[in-house]
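Quick one - first record:
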Amino acid sequence: MPEEKIDLSDDSRILERSPARIFERAIQGGLGRGNVGVVLSRPGVGKTAFLIGLALDALLNGRKVLHISTQESVDRVRGFYEHMFHMLAASLHLDRPQERLLAVERNRHILAYNREFFSLEKLESSVAVLKEATNFVPSFVITDGTPRFGKTEQWEMDGICRLAKEWDAEIWTSSLTHREGQDLDSRGVPVEVACFDSSLAVIINLVPTADYTRVAIVKDHDRASSPDLHLELDPTTLLLRW
């Protein structure tokens, strides 16, 4: 069943000017289906908010989103989405926000797992049930809290890359930086993430400054050098801004 785009009427022009479009163009059209990307930051800087902002943009453009969490409950993640949605709707001056929120929620599923018992097999089974029961096939996936870089082996990363291709979806995950004693490569990427470089199409680093959080592109597909992106996270709303 094809994804149905929410009727945005004249608001489609606003979405075209969204900072998310600038981010996509900066990384050659976006992460791209079948690819895996990772967002790096210190604890509490805004990794989850950044990813949910991208997910909401995908939802408003009619895509189906799957959010996997091994750190938070379904209710907590749902509440974060609702909060971020209202911030985004206000910033883009979207009309009928409650109607749009309901439409967004119909195209999004949240799955929460106990981190100690999570496996790719369980995830595949859950998605197969969603597809069978509701014809839900995600094209944008967030895996928040998994894989656990530093404890992940290549076979697990290979499995995530396989799912990205089988689902024809882009998969975003995250990892922490600046833990005590953490080894970094020449790009400032933790070595436990850098060792999977060949599996990662895009690497983003959220760099906190005194007034905002800068969105830095560390790896952009196969491009030899990454563009200097003038995007940041608003310190109040945690939304992308230009």
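second record:
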Amino acid sequence: MQQPDIYLSVIIPAYNEAEKITKTLRRIQEYFSERPYTYEIIVAADGPRDNTIEIAKKLSGEIKNLRILDRRKNKGKGFTVKEGMLAAKGKIRLFMDADNGTDISHFDMMRPLFDKGCDVVISSRDSKDAPGARQEVAQSFLKRLAGNAGNLFIQIVAVPGIWDTQNGFKAFRDYAAEKIFRKARINKWTFDVEILALARKFNYKIGIIPAHWVNDPRSSVKFSAYLLSLLEVIKIRWNIMRGKYNI
């Protein structure tokens, strides 16, 4: 018997997410229980040091249409999202963070944009991208300052016109996901910038929805990571100028 086409694939990159993954997977299943379309959920493990993989496997009997990409070596979030996107079978492929900081229900706002011809739809926490975007708990002044400065740099160098390139809730038509992620080279945090730069390069239509983002206070980013990200943005621009993505 032929399996029905999958409408939506949800990819969750997971490093050390043992404390969060159960709640997130149950929330996603609750969401799909009220929706008519076919789906799959992919937990893409990024070599976690805790028992994220074991917890996900135990939930496989409870969570419908769950697949686990069981990779024990850490290679970075960008590599992990790419792996999940290329393993997915959905007509639309969405990646989201394991803490459900941007709730799965945001996809309801994405669907109409895909129906209107968008190839890529992203979420933004910045109201300059999409009116109504907001953060449940404001970040510290220093984090906001570093984020705003970094984003201005990203706009100048790689992705003009998008104020929030980093929110971890982005969806792609299958053909766009295949082309973009097969070309992507950045394995770490700045992969978001690269995939948007590639979407622009390939003339894909990008839609933006407002995010209601619930920040996890336990998450932190070192200042050295900001500097590394800025260097990677320069590398992305260099790769575009040198035609590296044409190969």
